[in-house]
Amino acid sequence: MHTVGIRVFLTLRKTLFLWIDMSKKKFSLQFAVIGTGMVGTAIGVLLKNAGHDIAALADASALHRKRAQAYIGAPAFRDPARAADRAGCILITTPDDRIGSVCAQIAGKSSLAGKKVFHMSGAGGLDLLAPAARAGALVASIHPLQSFSSIDGAIASIPGSYFGVTAAVGAKKLAADIVRDLGGIPISISAEQKPLYHAAACIASNYLVSLLSVVESIYKSIGFSEKDARKAYLPLVYGSLKNIENQGCPNALTGPIARGDSGTIQKHIDAMARHLPAFASMYAHMGAIAVKLACEKGTLGAGQAKTIMGLLKGENP
Questions:
Q1: Among 186, 202, 224, 287, which is disulfide-ready with 219 (CB 3.0 to 4.6 Å)?
Q2: What's the burial of 315, exposed, middle or buried (CB within 10 Å: 0-12/13-18/19+)?
Q3: What is the pLDDT of residue 2?
Q4: pTM of the model
Q5: Closest CA relative to residue 88, chosen from 108, 117, 59, 68
């Protein structure tokens, strides 16, 4: 009797542990990825790695379809509606200007009632998915705050990134769960906030690239090669970014404006006007922002700020 009791106990314990283990497993979703550029392909890979089923891919480009299949191994179609028919979650990762038309095409040819349809535009709202919502789908947008220049780079950089999440009632939890499965951090963004949210992202990424191209141009104008210019300024950029990370923008500001060195600022203005006038207005506008930061930091007095602002506006020193 004692032996039987032990066996029953061990059987019950094994069953309990199995139930607990099963309860910890993620619920697998079936996805169709519509648009297999760099972002769509990388997202498909990460969702597959997280245990989800990539049931289908779709893209107008045969080259993109073939490349995505090599990464993901799912069937690929030219017609997005054929891919959408195979999945309960439809992720539209086309360029922003095509999201609305692709969504309308899917809604016109597929049954979307009860399905979930997402897009990944940073600036676009849920109005882009209106045809799917009218067809009975739950809709949301998830946008990674990250820059992508290759599929492999995107796969590596998406985990740990913040995602702006805009979701209809009923889709908020699922959208946040999908972001977490991608290794991302969800942050709620209203539809009204999206244009400013995305503008800030573009300034942080695209305009930083543009700004550094100006730096390269200036160094090349005094004889640096493009390669040497990058080698010279990138440690400065990395150091500044580290200072921002550790101290915030105002306290990370250094240089002549932070010191109130108006003589140096005048030399910059004169040199830019003589040699690179195309960049002179940019220098002045960025300088005005730096003046405000220096005042916030507390290293620039009101009188010094007024003098430097006068120089930047072209007033006589």
A1: 224
A2: exposed
A3: 52
A4: 0.84
A5: 117
